[in-house]
Specification:
By secondary structure, the protein is of the alpha/beta class. The protein has 16 helices and 10 strands. It binds zinc ion.
């Protein structure tokens, strides 16, 4: 069993982390008090438990309701800068060396900020964090499935406008059921015409058709979750006996899946850690890696997600290094930058850790 201390130190890459799902409880309290926003508790421990309880109700709809509180306290440039800055500090504390954080700018315009100033404030906070820690980042702008396709197009244009200032891609988030990604096709076409990057939440609460549409109709380059891809396979334990065309396509094209263990258990997208599809996909060489989704609501961190994978799937340190490399290969920054981080940061730090702990091999 890999010691938790080493899991904490191993270089990590986070590609699916919501800015409004990862606030520190104390920050929610500080900002709520400053702006007279009602919150369920002003005790950090109690408040953290309230957020986690919202997640454990096993309903994506109810889960999303807890975000009303976090977005309510993120309506000023100062608050957005602080939350973004602290996200980078928290990543640094668990040795995330590169991360992509995402948020929906439209949800932060309730007090009159423009989407443009919202994005600028978040980028300033992230940049301040990068300067202090060296953690490299990319920002993803989310459109919401339940909001108008015209708004999605506007956000797609905003993402492209900021491509040289830290924004690295576009995402579609929100409740999958009854909100197919193809409704937002114009936004995706805009991004594709500009040679930019797309990730789409799909196959979390809803099935294969959602994943297929995201990839083949909307042109996604990564999938958020993709948990239900397992429905396109017949299994004998961890062995895949046969696969449908979609699962073959995803595997053959090395299509990246951003998998979130604790989040899936919380929302009911997977029944238990032991039966989560991650293990089958990882052991059968799909391009999968671990992400947190919402650190606050799932009471998690990337270190905890890796520890869950070690405990439930028997992953070795070599496996954890592979997960970091898989994620880095799937990042939305340029190829040369990715190679630099893979070889000069991830592999180098892993070699140093091997020496420090006296491992001749990760296994
Ligand atoms: Zn998500």
């Amino acid at each position: 069993m890999v010691p938790y201390d080493i899991i904490r130190k191993i270089p990590k890459v986070e590609l699916h982390d919501h800015l409004d799902g990862g606030l520190r409880p104390q920050t929610v309290i500080d900002l709520a008090h400053r702006h007279d926003i009602p919150i369920p508790s002003s005790d950090p421990t109690e408040l953290a438990a309230w957020f986690e309880k919202g997640c454990k109700l096993k309903s994506l709809r109810l889960y999303l309701e807890t975000f009303a509180v976090t977005t309510a306290v993120m309506q000023t440039e100062e608050a957005l800068r602080r939350v973004a800055y602290e996200a980078i500090l928290d990543w640094h504390a668990e040795n995330i060396v590169y991360g992509e954080i995402r948020f929906a700018p439209i949800l932060h315009t309730m007090q009159g900020l423009s989407m443009d100033s919202v994005v600028r404030a978040v980028l300033e906070g992230l940049e301040q964090g990068r300067k202090e820690t060296g953690v490299q980042f990319g920002l993803l702008l989310c459109a919401m499935r339940s909001l108008s396709p015209n708004l999605s197009l506007e956000i797609a244009k905003l993402a492209v406008a900021y491509r040289d200032r830290g924004v690295v891609g576009f995402d579609l988030a929100g409740d999958e059921k009854g909100n197919p990604p193809k409704d937002h096709i114009e936004a995706f076409q805009f991004i594709r015409n500009k040679n930019f990057n797309i990730t789409i939440h799909a196959g979390e609460a809803y099935g294969l058709d959602s994943i297929w549409q995201a990839i083949q109709v909307c042109g996604a380059h990564r999938i958020g979750h993709g948990t239900r891809l397992i429905d396109d396979m017949s299994l004998d334990g961890l062995h895949i006996e046969s696969m449908g065309d979609l699962a073959h396509f995803v595997q053959d094209k090395r299509f990246p899946l951003e998998m979130c263990l604790s989040s899936n258990i919380g929302t009911g997208a997977a029944a238990s850690f032991g039966t989560h599809p991650f293990q089958v996909l990882f052991r059968n060489h799909f391009r999968v890696f671990l992400c947190t989704d919402n650190r606050l609501m799932s009471n998690t961190s990337l270190t905890k997600e890796m520890d869950i994978a070690v405990t439930n799937f028997g992953l070795s340190l070599k496996d954890l290094e592979k997960i970091s490399v898989n994620a880095m290969k799937s990042a939305f920054i340029h190829h040369e930058q990715k190679l630099d981080i893979i070889y000069n940061v991830i592999k180098k730090q892993c070699a140093d850790l091997r020496r420090e702990y006296g491992y001749s091999d990760w296994n």
